[in-house]
Amino acid sequence: MTDIPQIVEDLYNQLVTIPDEKDWPKYLGGNTLVAHDLYSFYYGLRAGFQLAGALREEELTLLEE
Fold first, then answer.
1. pTM beyond cutoff 0.70
2. Cα gap 27→10, rounded to integer Å
3. Quick one: how far is CA 41 from the chain centroid?
């Protein structure tokens, strides 16, 4: 397996937070692993959309050949 770059671990620790178990949806039934996976995926998607949105705010300039 490939080593995970330190920046990925740093970003993960800064961006991904798992809410208190009392705030989890009932369908998770206290399953810590599933909750962690779902919240990590959610925060990853959210960060991706925020980055994409930030890039769209800049004017598109085409490179001249």
1. no
2. 30
3. 6
Domain residue extents for the chain: 1-17+28-41
| 8 A C-beta contact, residue 18 and residue 33 | no
> Over the chain (65 residues), what is each successive 10-residue block's mean pLDDT?
82 76 81 84 84 71 61
CA separation, residue 31 to residues 1, 11, 23, 28 (Å): 27, 24, 13, 6
Whether 35 and 28 have beta carbons less than 8 Å apart is answered as yes
For the packed helices 32-56 and 6-15, what is the interaxial angle rounded to 10 degrees? Answer: 100
Alpha-carbon torsion angle 36, 53, 2, 18, nearest 10: -10
